[in-house]
Amino acid sequence: MQGPEPTELLLIRHAPVAQPGLLAGRSDLPARLPGAAEIAAARRVLAALGADPARLIVSPARRCRETATALFPEAEPLIDPRLWEQDFGAWDGRPMAEMPDLGPQARVALAAMCPPGGESFLQAAARILPAIEAATTAPGIVTIIAHAGTIRAALGQALAAPEAGLAFEIAPLSATRIRVFPDGSRGIAFVNRSLT
Length: 196
What we know:
By secondary structure, this protein is of the alpha/beta class. It has helices at about 35-50, 60-70, 105-110, 120-135, 150-160, and strands at about 5-15, 55-60, 80, 140-145, 175-180, 185-195. It has one domain (about 5-95, about 105-195): Phosphoglycerate mutase-like (Rossmann fold), CATH 3.40.50.1240.
């Protein structure tokens, strides 16, 4: 006997930013979209994965909106500001090479660490997860185009350990699928699947 159909979250990280090498949290940088052939290939992959343009939710960041337009040109996505990337405060927009060396840290400590004037990963997850929950109110596939931090927050929730999400690498233009069952439990179907 088969149970009720789950909600499936298809989480897509935006295309690379146009200025590589920067820590782009709240910096509203444009996307560096791939060429037409790669976009067409990504659309085919998304169609095979069951992406539903009618259930598309996007971070308001320019790089996410541009990625959404490239992948789903006919869609009218819901823009949810809670899906913004972690706010890196004083570090935001700076070259990665200039970031301070934090040394070895346990994931729990790293998740709680707050950049000057910004928010910790745990604070970002507390903002992001209500948006994820709001998307899971009906069965079927919901497609979300957002940031690596957004996807890591969803993975941490699926693992019932928020800091565990920091263990995952999330490449630009990759997809992650999380199944949300009627009892609220979650299953991770795949992580970081390339779309191109």
